[in-house]
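Hi support team,

I'm filing this because I wasn't sure whether my run with S-adenosylmethionine finished correctly. The job status page said complete, but I'd like someone to confirm that the output block is well-formed before I use it downstream. Pasting the exact inputs I used:
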Amino acid sequence: MPLEASMPSLEHTPPSRALGLGDATFDRIAGLVRTECGIELSQSKSNLIVSRLGRRVKTLNLITFDAYVDHIETPSGRDELRRMISLLTTNVTKFFREPHHFAALRADILPKLIAKARSGASVRIWSAGCSSGEEPLSIGMETLKLCPQASDLDLRILGTDLDPVSLQTARRASYDASSISNLTMQDQGQFFEPADDGKNLRAISELRDLITYAELNLIGEWPMERPFDVIFCRNVVIYFDNPTQATLWPRFANALHRKGSLFIGHSERLGGPGVSSFEPSGITQYRRI
Ligand SMILES: C[S@@+](CC[C@H](N)C(=O)[O-])C[C@H]1O[C@@H](n2cnc3c(N)ncnc32)[C@H](O)[C@@H]1O
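And here is everything the job wrote out:
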């Protein structure tokens, strides 16, 4: 056999081995991600890790993923840990994703909440895991359609996420044509205006002003003191393991007013001790008992 045929070549080395992502290194990264934000990375994600983190490893002039994890585990590696989590989170979202939830808001929930706010009470809606802002903006558009003066009332939407990069986009509220394309022409015209860059469309200030954004890790402490009327936590816990998911449902129940609504993603299910605090009220929609 020619010598080169017996040598491992980079060309034929799976990408996860090329920079040194062996099983032990994968386990170190997966362990850090699990502890930090609850996200469960399966072995099938090793190519994703290589493609998303490989550039960071090279930019930092490190030779292997192990050296990268060593760096993250030093006290000065805290910022890099946040950057790593940000690179590994799935931030896919879109306006009016799972439209039946917005139909329920429009038909049933918001009219009552707007009446409540008009009576002088405060109304709070939380988009937990809001990514780049499309979800809270969709809630805001439905609110303004029913109540154009909503910003004069004590009615506010809170958008939180772990990922500071997504939150930056959410705060800017400026989106390219493809992100806006699933909005009706009417919604585009009513709620968006040309952004300063001359290319994107930006949410109008009346809509932006309804929403406050904050960085929040759902598996950490929640500093909010007042209960919410509605919580959207959709397509977030699907990335957590079952025990972590189970710890969140009772916390969401405690964070809701009695009869407050919880919306979860289409492939998520309530489980564990929090289930008894909720009754189904629609498709992946629950009411706090
Ligand atoms: C797929 S997006 C879902 C966005 C939106 N809720 C939707 O359904 O379109 C998931 C979001 O959850 C966030 N996330 C993941 N783990 C989190 C955690 N532990 N705490 C807060 N946010 C988290 C990610 O940063 C990401 O922006």
